[in-house]
Each structure stands twice: as C-alpha cells, then as structure tokens.
Design goal:
13% strand, alpha/beta, 47% helix, six-stranded parallel beta sheet, four-stranded parallel beta sheet
Length: 359
C-alpha cells in the first residue's frame, strides 16, 4: 500500500489490516514510511522521496524484489501506485480501487496517470471497491470487467460517538456563539470547499451569527488558495489537521456537517463518522454519498453554492428534523462495521484462491 495521507482510503487499509490480523491471518504489509505507527514487525517500510513521482523507482524496484523472493498466497494492493511493483513482478493480484477521481476531474495533465489507473484495473484478477455505484464507473472509465469488481463498504471505528461535554468546551475555545457548520477532510479543489465558503457567506445574511469551521490539511497545490481564503473569510475558523483523538469532539461540536465534493468520492467516511457522533449531514449528490447515506442526510447538487446556502438556511429553521434523521440512522449505521468488511473481504479472497491459488 502507499498511504501518503490520512484519508479515507488509508483508514480503510489500516482498518482492514487490523481486522484480518485479529482473525489470525498471516499478513506482511509493504508500504512507504509516511508517518507514525509502523512498529509492527509484520510491516515493512521504505523511506522514499516525498516529491511527486520521484518515489516511483525506489518504491517499485524495492518491493518488486520482495514480491519475487517471497511466495505469497494473496497479493492485495491499495490503488494503482501500490500496484506498480506487483505489475513489474508479473504476479496475479487483487486491487482496491476507491474511486475514479482521475477520470472525473483534472488531477494531472500527465497522460500516464490515467494509463496506470486503467492498467491496474485491467490487470487485477479481482477488484475491491467501497460502494456499489463505483462498480459501473470503474468498468466504464478503466475498462475492467464488472464481474470481477466486488463492493465492500468501508467501516467506522466505534470510537466515533457523541461527546457533548467536550464539544461544549471546544465551542468555548473556538469562541463560537451561534450555530456551527463543520467540514473536515483533505483540502483539495474537488472537495467543494470554495462552494461551502460561498454558501456560508450567503446564508450568513439570513443567519448573522452563523459559524463555519474547516478542518483538514491542504495539498501542496492548495496552500496558496487556503491562505487567500483566510484573508477573504477572516471570521471562518480554519483549524488545520484535526488529531485523531479529537475527531469525535469536533463532529459533536457542530450543528451540521457538510461535505460537498463534485468528484473522486468512493465512499464518504467523514459524513458517516459525523452521523455516528450525532451530527446531521448535508452532502453533495455524488453517487457514493447517496448510496452510503441513503435517506439519512440532506443532499444538494454539487457546485451550486446558492442551493447549498438555501439548504443551510432551511436546515437551521428545522433543527428537530435533522435530529430525527440522526436518530433514525442509528440502526442503519450498524452495517458499517469492520466485522462486515472482514467477512466480505474473506469471501473475495476465497474466490481468488479457488481460481489463482496454489494447486
């Protein structure tokens, strides 16, 4: 795996690793050393250049050698970058593909990025994705046979739960006197944060004491943009990367959580975490969001800040309705557990071994 940031895809790989280890599977994890938490003796890490694409030769050649020297029963990659050593080693493998982001928006002007995505999808013997709606999109954009693509919904850590007392203290710390909208996640252009800011400004005309809190780290290409946002919206709380141990508190602090991407969403972990913490959700109409959240969120067409502002105003006029949605969602949310993920992944592994395992 190549988890270069703490996003939903990385959380999924970490959670899956822990779940399968707890079930007694013997796992070797090959990854880039990108942060803390690599003390496990079954995890091999590699120091690589942080700059874009310069990591490729070292990562690919090192783990190609490891794969050629070891006789693994199953090789499972997280995305096309992690598949490079496997493809160079000419080994059969399973790939996790979280979304079709590079085909929905301009992630890179370099044509080989899409080529690697397609080759990964076409070479993989099985594909795991995290929403049913992704299956048709992966087949359409990447040319993979839909029969080999399996839906395995992601899961939410049980630590996500309401924390009203800590939330009250956080509101005081941030000096939040009125209603609060919250976003947390990667700060990237397709996440729709510019639209959230514009909608907040419009809604504030009707709700003068409205607050907006934005959490998450900016990618290199977005850092200047974030600085300009801070100058344009001095009243908005840009809190940066929220520590894992404080995530539930931040969700609980908000009256509503907003996630408003217009591309590259394969599941949508943050809105599910918010619901688990008792916070209603407003989301864009991305197919994965609608599938994962179903009737337990408010949906607005992406890239429509005026419509989003209207939804903000309507939401705060009907707070009881939002609270009821959260209450109704609790039984539904129980499907997003690591036990269910482990069961589904084991089923994919069994099918793979029957066809490609040792005879």
């Amino acid at each position: 795996t190549y988890p270069d940031r703490k996003d939903g895809a990385s959380k999924f790989q970490c959670g899956l690793y822990n779940e399968l280890r707890n079930r007694g599977h013997d796992i070797t994890l090959l990854t880039a050393k990108w942060g803390e938490g690599f003390q496990d003796q079954n995890i091999q890490t590699l120091e690589i250049p942080k700059l874009r694409f310069l990591w490729v030769p070292k990562f690919t050649m090192k783990y190609r050698s490891v794969l050629q020297k070891n006789d693994f029963d199953i090789i499972h990659s997280n995305g096309s970058r992690a598949s490079l050593p496997i493809m160079f080693a000419n080994k059969p493998f399973i790939a996790t593909i979280h979304d079709v982001g590079p085909f929905q928006t301009n992630f890179s002007r370099l044509p080989f990025v899409k080529w690697v995505e397609r080759k990964n999808a076409q070479d993989a013997k099985r594909i795991i994705t995290c929403a049913e709606s992704n299956r048709a999109e992966i087949s359409k954009y990447m040319g993979a046979e839909i029969a080999k693509i399996f839906n395995v919904n992601s899961a939410v850590d049980p630590k996500f739960k309401p924390e009203p007392q800590k939330a009250k203290a956080l509101r005081e710390k941030l000096n939040l006197k009125g209603p609060v909208i919250y976003y947390v996640g990667r700060i990237e252009f397709y996440k729709g944060i510019a639209d959230i800011l514009a909608a907040y400004k419009l809604a504030k005309k009707d709700i003068p004491d409205l607050n907006l809190v934005i959490g998450g780290g900016a990618t290199l290409t977005m850092q200047e943009t974030v600085e300009s946002w801070k100058r344009e919206y001095p009243e908005v709380n840009f809190v940066g990367i929220v520590p894992d141990e404080e995530m539930s508190t931040y969700y609980s602090m908000a009256d509503v959580f907003c996630t408003y991407s217009y591309a590259s969403e394969g599941f949508g972990l943050t809105p599910v975490e918010a619901l688990n913490c008792g916070t209603p959700v407003i989301a864009s109409t991305m197919p994965a969001f609608k599938e994962v959240l179903q009737k337990y969120a408010y949906f607005v067409e992406p890239q429509q800040p005026q419509l989003l502002a209207q939804q903000f105003i309507q939401f705060f006029k009907n707070l009881d309705q939002g609270k009821q949605l959260v209450k109704d969602a609790q039984l539904f949310l129980q499907r997003y557990t690591w036990k269910n993920v482990g069961d589904l992944v084991e089923n994919v592994y069994q099918g793979y071994l029957q066809e490609y395992g040792k005879k």
